[in-house]
Amino acid sequence: METLRELVSMAEGINLFSIVLRIAVSVMCAGILGIERGKANQSAGMRTYILVSLGATVVMLTGQYMFDKFSTGDPARLGAQVISGIGFLGAGSIIVEGKTKVRGLTTAAGLWTAACIGLAVGIGFYLGGIIATAVVYLVITKFKSFSDHFTHNDVILRIYIEFEEMSELKPLFATIESFGLQVLDTLLNNPKNSGIYNAVLSIKNPEDKTHEQILDYLKKLQGIKKVRIIY
């Protein structure tokens, strides 16, 4: 019991143990969120999330160190600068497609939240940072289908596909539309070294088909090597 109290006391102060612990927790929390965004083919992935959270953690560690060492400084003021300054990175992850469609808002909000989690962990609020990570991950991965239930006909799905030949793309559009979906636009990427093309399709779902129905249908199409819905 006495050892546990000593560890808690060390974790709350500024020392080698607490510095390593806070950085490790910060990297772990941000890495979990970043991996999910990376799977969704977002520009901000695991490394970006980790760096954002790690930077915020270092800011709070520095603020607490200054206060303990020199009896001056305000950790909360440094944290406030991080919260307002992270906006430039979030804005860079937002992409405007066409005249009215915007994507990347979830990633931008996730980056801002990762910075806040880093601040919490950096000041020693471990439990708050870990719980916040769990809630954010739940919102990003599970709440999409829940929100789609209330906005079914207006929902735009983004579907990642891999295929072998460019000539397969146009017939694919016709097949998708015959299934009751509408292809709005396409982001085509260069082929990998393996010669496999990949593209992200923005698709409207006016008939409110489930994600499972759409994926099962697309997976059966000839020439499609891989398909998944991204957020």
Please describe what this structure looks like.
- Helix content is 59%, strand content 16%.
- It is of the alpha+beta class and 231 residues long.
- The strands form 2 sheets. Strands 4-5-3-6 form a 4-stranded antiparallel β-sheet, covered by helices on one side. A two-stranded antiparallel ribbon has the order 1-2.
- Strand 1 (95-97) and strand 2 form a beta hairpin.
- It is elongated.
- The model has no long low-confidence stretch (mean pLDDT 79).
Span from first to last CA? 46 Å
Q: What order do the strands of the largest sheet run in, or round the barrel if closed?
A: 4-5-3-6
Globally, the shape reads: elongated
Mean pLDDT: 79
Structural class: alpha+beta
* Relative helix content: 55-70%
Our count of helices gives 9
Largest sheet: 4 strands, antiparallel
Rg (C-alpha, Å): 22 Å
Detail the poorly predicted runs: none
Number of strands: 6
Percent of residues in beta strands:
15-25%
Order of helices and strands: HHHHHEEHHEHEEHE
Transmembrane segments: 14-35, 47-66, 78-96, 108-140
Protein name: MgtC/SapB family protein
Subcellular location: Cell membrane
InterPro entries: MgtC/SapB/SrpB/YhiD_fam (IPR003416), MgtC_SapB_SrpB_YhiD_N (IPR049177)
Main attributes?
4-stranded antiparallel β-sheet; 6 strands; MgtC/SapB family protein; 9 helices; alpha+beta; 231 residues; two-stranded antiparallel sheet; transmembrane
Topology, element by element:
Elements: H1 2-12, H2 16-39, H3 46-70, H4 75-85, H5 87-92, E1 95-97, E2 101-103, H6 105-122, H7 126-148, E3 156-163, H8 169-178, E4 182-189, E5 197-204, H9 211-219, E6 224-230
Antiparallel strand pairs: 1-2, 3-5, 3-6, 4-5
Helix pairs in contact: 2-3, 2-6, 2-7, 3-4, 3-6, 6-7
